[in-house]
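Hi V.,

You were right to ask for the full record rather than a summary. Here it is.
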Amino acid sequence: MLEDLNKKAKKAGLHVADAKKRDRYSIRKVKNGKLVAKNVDAEEALRVIKQYK
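Predicted structure:
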């Protein structure tokens, strides 16, 4: 799942990484590393990525 999210996020200039909790992700901007979303599930991550396109 992480690989699929990263493929979609790369187009939007974002990077998805595993969070400390299981099945949770954190999203950062590639350009400056600022945190966009923290401890979100896969569905929420897709919404955030779509928002930044």
